[in-house]
Design brief:
Blueprint (H helix, E strand, L loop, with lengths): L2 E4 L3 E3 L10 H5 L2 E9 L2 E2 L2 H14 L6 H15 L2 E8 L16 E8 L9 E5 L9 H4 L6 H12 L4 E5 L4 E5 L3 E6 L2 E4 L10 H9 L6 E4 L2 E2 L7 E6 L3 E7 L5 H6 L1 H15 L13
Parallel strand pairs: 7-8, 7-15, 11-12
Antiparallel strand pairs: 1-2, 1-6, 3-4, 3-5, 5-6, 8-9, 9-13, 10-11, 10-14, 14-15
């Protein structure tokens, strides 16, 4: 794909230009959203729009929901199957931190081909050294300030892990660098509450709503560090979907089998909403 979305229209990527004084570039002043596209449709589009619009409101970024919706629709048609990232910045501004008097947000969107190799892939975790600040807006919204996640992801890979698991300032499990976390305890799935510094993830919401129909009881409870090492987890996000995970090594092979009903329900939900079945495209056997 060579076209991107910039301020309400598709343009060739080589022709797209963002001002060097854009606060997204100079200050990381903005938010973004990433969504799965199947059959030219955004999976759980309304949930994505709701969250992105709420984040823009929380950060005082004045942008109409209709602009976000138009960007998703155009990019979904452009890519067909893949992922979309929309970024909203505060736009250009003078030096300093004060809001511009007349902010004019920049809306940028891009799309990438479908990466089915990420779906349901088991992950190895390691505890991050940096703590997640549960009092910060950056913990509850997908802001452009991702330095902690970048640094800790590099450190995780250096010790043979796939991704870091962040604790908050109270020593409770919050999330990984790129995903929400559910601890698996028998037929119980336990995920930290948003107040522990957790992003209101789209797939997190889907699991909370749909896991009971697959035989799981779901709870929002704080997860203490003391129980982290011997536990097994699911990491959820829009591009990995449901990823079995463990700290310090590979998750046990049987974990994927335990999650099979939930995995099948998710694939059914994607088929129902987007009109295409991803099972034939998965790298392993489909359910």
């Amino acid at each position: 794909m060579t076209r991107v979305w910039l301020d309400d229209r598709l343009v060739e990527a080589d022709d797209a230009a963002i001002a060097p004084t854009d606060r997204g570039f100079t200050l990381g002043d903005g938010v973004f959203d990433t969504a799965l596209v199947v059959n030219s449709r955004v999976f759980r589009q309304e949930a994505h729009l709701d969250r992105l619009a709420a984040s823009c409101e929380a950060l005082s970024l004045p942008i109409a929901r209709t602009r976000l919706e138009a960007a998703y629709a155009a990019l979904a048609q452009e890519i067909g199957a893949g992922s979309i990232r929309l970024t909203v910045t505060r736009g250009t501004g003078a030096r300093g931190l004060a809001f511009p008097d007349d902010p004019r947000p920049t809306l940028f969107g891009s799309a990438s081909p479908l990466a089915t190799s990420l779906f349901f892939k088991p992950l190895r975790l390691t505890l991050a050294a940096i703590r997640r600040n549960e009092t910060s807006l950056t913990a509850r919204h997908k802001t452009l300030s991702y330095l902690d996640a970048i640094i800790e992801t590099d450190r995780a890979k250096r010790v043979g892990a796939d991704e870091p698991l962040f604790l908050n300032t109270q020593g409770r499990i919050a999330c990984s660098a790129l995903a929400n976390v559910f601890r698996i305890d028998g037929n119980r799935l336990i995920t930290p509450p948003l107040s522990d510094g957790v992003l209101n993830g789209i797939m997190r919401g889907w699991v909370l709503d749909n896991a009971p129909a697959s035989g799981f009881a779901v709870f929002e409870e704080s997860l203490d560090r003391a129980a982290a090492w011997n536990a097994h987890y699911i990491l959820t996000n829009s591009l990995r979907l449901l990823a079995p995970a463990a700290i310090g090594g590979e998750p046990p092979p049987g974990l994927a089998d335990r999650l099979a009903p939930l995995r099948a329900a998710l694939l059914d939900a994607i088929r129902a909403e987007c009109g295409a079945d991803l099972r034939d495209q998965l790298p392993g056997p489909g359910e």
